[in-house]
Inverse folding.
């Protein structure tokens, strides 16, 4: 009330700031609006005024009617008594005809007295007089007994018609006595109620006028009052004001900020609970001047002044208060001020917690970026150890099960023995288990408890951690002496399976771990555990795929004299692919070089690669030309693709069809010094000449395998001795950060730097060192072969005439050449083979017929003719005179076969050298074999 009396009220300020206050409203509408306080007050006051005026008018009217009735009674009594006491009335009652005497007198007296009737009757109530003569002689209507006893009776009663009309009358009955005092008759005089109303009706207009004037004055005052109330409440309704006050109380007293309101004189009008707490104000502080509150001088001066303050810091009872002060009415003089107080000491604590939470979120975010970037278990464990140091712990160790490190599925039976996988922090100064050392765990250790419970274990004070100390007393004692004082051990588990534990240590001046650190360490460990498990599973699958692929690749070089070979196979870091190569020895001293790449990665690509390599070996055994071999290989890939795209194969491999493969197939002939090559979508063959010049072979590019129906073009290269053939897959020259043209340029430069003097092994290593990225994303296969020429002294050739008699001369030449080569031990077998092959060529073939002997690691006999009909090994019947020639060749040779040329075919047979014993001597003599054909049981 003091605030309202001294100036603009605080309530008015609150109302003016209410969200409804800014809405314009029609005054007349608001005045009559029953929802607003002003409208309700207006209607109630108007109702009260109307009721008061109506009550006043009614009271005045009733009072006037009552006075008029009393006046009518008096007049009736006076008129009745006056006539009863008039002389001669008593004597007239005793006369023989009282009506004749009294009727004229009664009417005259009635008119003089102004009453409506004067009736004279006997003691029995029989009328002697009445304004209407026909009513004379009838019984009087009214009470007469009291009057017979000498008393006056006044009552309201109805009777016969009167000159004033019918209705209730106010009448008085008085006795008429004779000289002796005896009642001899009765006189009644009266006035009807209608005539009584005439006595007060003239006052009614005055009364109503006065009431109307009072009503108008009261309504005007009510309108003025409600309009003022309307301005003060801004047309708000009770519910709105109630809600506003409830919000005001809730906000003012629940907010964690002190609020003070002072008037222009510096008197404290309001202080919320927080303001009283921060300033330690007493209960009766409100209403007093700020100088009387006992506050510090600076606070008192600031509150008493009219100046605005922004974030001014004051010390009050050890609290740092940030003070803001603003005037309540900036544009009006004489207004008060609003002061807000904030406890910055508590805000510092809150901000510290927020900072810690933000720091932990940042660390978790960083861990998500750093942990799991490599699909390697040890590297992932090291990432976990490094990301937590030094911001969360001073030293971190990660211990994993051996099964996890090896990529196998972990089991609970192996928990008691872990292996140290990673350390980060000041481990050099601490007596910790080194990396890769096995750590036996006892049941009382925090690590074992964490694994069994599946939750983090806190050892806030390692001085009291008996289980940790008993694990290894010497190491524990040394660690405590160096300042290690707190530990959190967190199990690393993924898919509900424990993988190991992570140990976070704090030492020196670092604060001990608290309970709130457990949830953070568990979150950090959970993320790392998923990454470690992914790396473990990848390690398992990668190991399986690499093992499969390496088992499908060549284990060693075949025996051959045409090439000096070195190779490298490097699987991708993220999984093996379908890169493959092969080196296949062919008859006639020739060698096939194969390099291929199956699209895709993983076990499926490796298995497909194995199938293609097997197919190439089988096709090479047929000694097909390179273009025909690629054609058959293309058909195989098409069939494989069709199998993968239909039936159950689709579900089994989830749509992992072959989708294509590339292949480079080359055959090198060391006798002719020629290399015939064809490629299906594969990078071109690179040739390093003896002078160090590096060129591409320009083998015509054909579509990849699996498209079907496309021919494959070949190119024949004539290479000098000591040339190098370089076969590779695209992973060597192309990756995510390097274009293939840039890679080919780098490969040529590397080969040029290696020069012609390096061995194939040295050249391979130089290429790998220069070209292979640190983290290969694709498989890399590299094969480098240095060419050799077959020594001319080891080659003997003869043309044969198509005459059976020429066989003897061929045997003689062969015998002489074997003697020159000092291979007389195999002379009989060789002559037998040459005889059979030449005889078949003369008998079944066509000219030209030619014989060639190749003396190298083995002795190869080749007989060529112009016919394309291939002989076949068959079983001759006992009655057949021939048909056993190829059987004898097969028995005396290590291996034999047929290959087709552009001019016919070549039948060849190989014999081993250096054993000293022929194939036939080792097993069974030819004669014995021939005799077996006559055995009926065979």
């Amino acid at each position: 009330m003091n605030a309202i009396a001294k100036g603009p009220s605080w309530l008015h300020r609150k109302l003016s700031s209410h969200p409804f206050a800014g809405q314009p409203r029609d005054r007349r509408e608001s005045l009559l609006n029953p929802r607003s306080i002003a409208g309700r007050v207006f209607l109630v006051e108007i109702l009260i005024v109307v009721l008061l005026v109506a009550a006043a008018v009614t009271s005045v009217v009733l009072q006037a009617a009552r006075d008029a009735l009393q006046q009518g009674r008096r007049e009736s009594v006076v008129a009745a008594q006056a006539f009863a006491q008039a002389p001669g009335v008593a004597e007239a009652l005793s006369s023989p005809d009282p009506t004749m005497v009294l009727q004229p007198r009664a009417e005259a007296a009635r008119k003089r007295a102004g009453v409506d009737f004067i009736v004279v009757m006997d003691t029995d109530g029989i009328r002697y007089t009445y304004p209407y003569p026909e009513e004379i002689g009838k019984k009087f209507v009214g009470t007469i007994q009291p009057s017979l006893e000498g008393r006056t009776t006044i009552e309201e009663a109805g009777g016969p018609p009167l000159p004033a009309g019918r209705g209730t009358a106010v009448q008085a009955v008085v006795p008429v006595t004779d000289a002796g005092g005896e009642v001899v008759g009765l006189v009644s005089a009266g006035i009807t109620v209608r005539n009584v109303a005439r006595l007060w009706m003239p006052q009614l207009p005055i009364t109503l006028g006065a009431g109307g004037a009072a009503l108008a004055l009261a309504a005007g005052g009510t309108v003025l009052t409600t309009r003022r109330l309307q301005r003060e409440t801004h047309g708000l309704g009770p519910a709105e004001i109630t809600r506003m006050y409830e919000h005001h109380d809730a906000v003012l007293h629940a907010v964690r900020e002190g609020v003070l309101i002072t008037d222009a004189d510096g008197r404290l009008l309001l202080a919320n609970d927080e303001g009283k707490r921060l300033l330690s104000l007493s209960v009766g502080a409100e209403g007093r001047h700020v100088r009387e509150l006992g506050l510090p001088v600076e606070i008192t001066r600031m509150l008493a002044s009219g100046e605005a303050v922004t974030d001014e810091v004051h010390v009050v009872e050890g609290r740092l208060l940030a003070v803001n002060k603003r005037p309540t009415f900036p544009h009006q003089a004489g207004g008060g001020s609003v002061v807000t107080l904030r406890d910055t000491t508590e805000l510092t604590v809150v901000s510290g917690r927020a900072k810690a939470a933000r720091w932990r979120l940042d660390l978790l975010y960083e861990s998500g970026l750093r942990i799991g970037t490599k699909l390697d278990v040890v590297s992932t464990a090291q990432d976990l150890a490094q990301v937590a140091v030094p911001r969360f712990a001073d030293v971190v160790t990660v211990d994993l099960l051996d099964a996890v490190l090896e990529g196998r599925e972990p089991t609970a039976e192996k928990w008691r023995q872990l292996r140290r996988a990673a350390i980060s922090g000041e481990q050099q100064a601490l007596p910790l288990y080194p990396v890769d050392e096995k750590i036996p765990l006892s049941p009382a250790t925090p690590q074992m408890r964490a694994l069994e419970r599946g939750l983090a274990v806190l050892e806030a004070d390692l001085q009291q951690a008996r289980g940790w100390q008993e694990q290894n007393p010497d190491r524990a004692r040394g660690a405590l002496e160096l300042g290690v004082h707190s530990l959190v051990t967190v199990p690393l588990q993924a898919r509900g399976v424990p993988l190991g534990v992570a140990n976070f240590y704090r030492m020196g001046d670092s604060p001990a771990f608290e309970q709130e650190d457990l949830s953070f360490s568990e979150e950090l460990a959970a993320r790392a555990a998923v990454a470690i498990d992914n790396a473990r599973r990848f390690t398992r699958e990668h190991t399986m795929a690499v093992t499969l692929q390496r088992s499908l690749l060549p284990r060693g070089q075949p025996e051959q004299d045409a090439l000096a070979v070195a190779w490298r196979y490097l699987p991708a870091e993220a999984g093996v692919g379908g890169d493959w190569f092969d080196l296949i020895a062919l008859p006639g001293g020739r060698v096939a070089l194969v390099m291929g790449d199956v699209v895709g990665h993983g076990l499926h690509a490796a298995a497909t690669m194995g199938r293609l390599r097997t197919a190439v070996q089988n096709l090479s055994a047929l000694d097909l030309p390179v273009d025909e071999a690629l054609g058959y290989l293309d058909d195989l890939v098409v069939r494989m693709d069709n199998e993968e795209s239909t039936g159950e194969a689709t579900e089994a491999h989830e749509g992992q069809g072959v989708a294509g493969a590339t292949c480079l197939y080359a055959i090198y002939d060391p006798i002719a010094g020629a290399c015939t090559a064809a490629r299906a979508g594969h990078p071109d063959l690179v040739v390093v000449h003896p002078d160090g010049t590096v060129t591409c072979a320009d083998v015509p590019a054909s579509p990849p395998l699996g498209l079907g129906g496309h021919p494959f073009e070949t190119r024949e290269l004539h290479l000098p001795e000591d040339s190098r053939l370089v076969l590779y897959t695209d992973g060597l020259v192309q990756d995510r950060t390097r274009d293939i043209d840039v890679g080919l340029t780098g490969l040529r430069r590397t080969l040029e730097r290696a020069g012609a003097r390096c061995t194939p092994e040295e050249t391979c290593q130089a290429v790998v060192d220069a070209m292979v990225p640190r983290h290969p994303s694709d498989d890399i296969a590299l094969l480098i072969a240095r060419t050799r020429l077959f020594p001319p002294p080891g080659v003997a050739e003869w043309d044969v005439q198509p005459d059976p008699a020429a066989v003897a001369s061929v045997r003689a030449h062969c015998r002489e050449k074997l003697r020159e080569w000092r291979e007389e031990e195999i002379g009989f077998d060789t002559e037998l083979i040459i005889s059979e092959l030449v005889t078949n060529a003369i008998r079944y073939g066509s000219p030209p017929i030619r014989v060639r002997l190749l003396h190298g690691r083995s002795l190869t006999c080749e007989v060529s003719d112009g016919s394309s009909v291939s002989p076949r090994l068959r079983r001759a019947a006992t009655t057949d005179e021939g048909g056993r020639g190829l059987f004898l060749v097969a028995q005396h040779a290590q291996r034999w076969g047929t290959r087709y040329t552009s001019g016919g075919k070549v039948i060849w047979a190989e014999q081993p050298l250096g054993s000293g014993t022929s194939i036939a001597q080792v097993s069974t003599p030819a004669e014995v074999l021939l005799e077996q054909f006559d055995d009926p049981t065979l």
Summary: The chain has a mean pLDDT of 79.
